[in-house]
Amino acid sequence: MLRLAIKKILRKRSFKDYKRIGNQLSKAVNATFRPTVDKRRILLIVGCQRSGTSMLRAVFGKDPMTKIFAEKSVLSSDDKIYNIRLNAINKLNEQLESYNYPLLVLKPLVESQYTTSLLDEIPNSKAIWLYRHYVGVAYSNLKKFGMQNSINNLRPIAKGEMDNWRSENLAPETVALVKKYFSEDMNPYDGAALFWYVRNSLFFQQELQDNEKVMLLNYEDLTTQPEKKVQSVYNFMQFPYPNKAIAGLIHENKKAKLLDRSVFSPVITELCEAMFQQLKHQELLIQTKQYHDAK
Fold first, then answer.
1. 145-158: per-residue pLDDT in tens?
2. What is the 3-state secondary structure (H, E, C) of 238-251?
């Protein structure tokens, strides 16, 4: 198995990028000789889209002890339409058990509404709920997916399309809030911010603040204190921290501070700002509790 993996890597003839080849070889070695299933750890990166989840997953991608999965992967192979919904739990667990890595990292953002269930049903799993200020998320969302995307995200909720991941497992008051403000011609920035509110409300709705398997992590803190925050993630996972270089690809987005906030209506601004402050406060409470528990 190892010999085939090495041949496959060298066949690419990418000799200019020795670091990448070395990393691939290291992963191949780990996949061959490393741990038993009962010692494996599984990390779920969840939260709202455009909150830095891909960046955090990429950090783990530099660790030769890990195997990372994108939203579209073999773990969502049964979703024949979008290839983003996780396979049924029995099949998913069988697939995860087939990978002989000490740490498996998944990013099932469209399953964030089922974080509690996933943690209960996937052995040795924990979750990072990554959150970012709604202004940055809204701008990033509309820039990547188009100005109509926020309307498309809210429509299924407003229309009660229960077979859509956006509508699943939402509290009645959250659905009522979307119906109150949604319209086909609404301000797209308000729409993106409101969708951010909906997705992050799921953190509290599932009472994840009381779940010891969940870590709440702020994107802005991650980008301004990368080494400290990445190391805290590894501590949370009770997994060996490789070295400070692993956080090297994380950089602060200084342009985010210059984004025009006047594009959001006062009512949506007040709503989302309250949610953001609630998340920040809860993160501090969780960190304080973990600190005292560790003493």
1. 999 999 999 999 99
2. CCCCCCHHHHCCCC
